[in-house]
Amino acid sequence: MRAVARHIGRLPSVGIGRPFISSVSVASDPLGDRTAQGTIVAMRHLPTILLILSFPVGIVGYTVATDVLQTLTLPAYVRPFVLLFVPLLAAGLVMVPFLVPFIDRKAKADLAAYRASQPPETDDADASPDAAGPPPPGDPP
């Protein structure tokens, strides 16, 4: 027990009981190759992995919802619609958390491309409404 206490005493820590927090931070990486646009490189493909995992999760959600609904006693005129649409809704709701990171990444890329295609905004002091040109016809001077 004393050997463990001596070893822990030599660990760098930030705060009480948090060893190695400062040595793991991405900002302290001298080469700067651990990050790609603010994310850790190992996590760059996580939205794609979650997208792929969303399909099996949707199938499981559909199957579970169908099994639960088949145990219910429903009227004959409602049963086919309920057994079709409610499991689809359940599968969609189960898939949403897996799809959001992928859609978010695509939306950010589209927004960056749109901003890059726009001309840069200028902050001219001369751009007042009076200096914009002559007033439209019909306005009193």
Summarize the structure in words.
This protein is mainly α. The chain has four helices and two strands. It has helices at residues 2-9, 21-24, 46-70, 79-117, and strands spanning 35-36, 39-40. Strands 1-2 form a two-stranded antiparallel ribbon. A hairpin with a 2-residue loop joins strand 1 (35-36) and strand 2 (39-40). Helix 3 (46-70) runs antiparallel to helix 4. The longest helix is centred in the last third of the chain and has 39 residues, at 79-117. The radius of gyration is 29 Å and the shape is elongated. It starts with a helix and ends in a 24-residue tail after the last helix. 4% of the residues are buried. Mean pLDDT is 75; it is low at 11-15 and 18-27.
Low-confidence stretches: 11-15, 18-27
| Overall spatial form | elongated
Number of helical runs? 4
- Could you give a short account of the major beta sheet? 2 strands, antiparallel
